[in-house]
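To fix ideas, we reproduce below a protein record of this kind.
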Amino acid sequence: MFQHFKNIDTAFKHVRLFSFLLIAANVFCVCFCIYKSYALVDAAQNRVHILYNGKVLEALAADRKVNLPVELRDHIRVFHEDFFTLVPDDKAIQATVTRAFYLADESAKRAYDNLREAGYYNNLVSGNIDQQVTVDSIRLGMDSYPYAFTCFATEKLVRSSSTVTRRLVTQGTVSDLKSETDNNPHGFLIRNWEILQNDDVKGGTP
């Protein structure tokens, strides 16, 4: 009879152990399913569908920090192209420079006023000079905020009879406005901008 009770007690222990294992397995399965569900939802939220030429394309959204240096360089490049790429037309010069003003603070307006007072833009128009700028490189300081930069570019002043090449070097800082607009699609603002060098490489002035 004691052997019978011992067998019942052993069987009960086995059933209890099996029940604990089954409950643990169920808890693990539930936690795993919840984890995978959150992962799938997060992955779905990072997918962006774009309508391009009548076709739906899928793109992946990324954290802005990953592309921050790329966006900063593009913002700086666009600003310099708008500010320095000029044609010999007063209205066209005003239009392109105004676009640049949306990307920088009052330091850009001061630089424009100084150039205008020095007769720089009048010389471009009267000399029928087409000024083109190419940004060669941009050095960024990502260790501290606002982000410091130095821009190295090449200017070409094209006349009907000759072309003058200039070396352009500027510096400043870039702040994040935390919002984008049509006039400032990256949502950055160049501050404390100044021209360090704007000298002829092969001689000649406009």
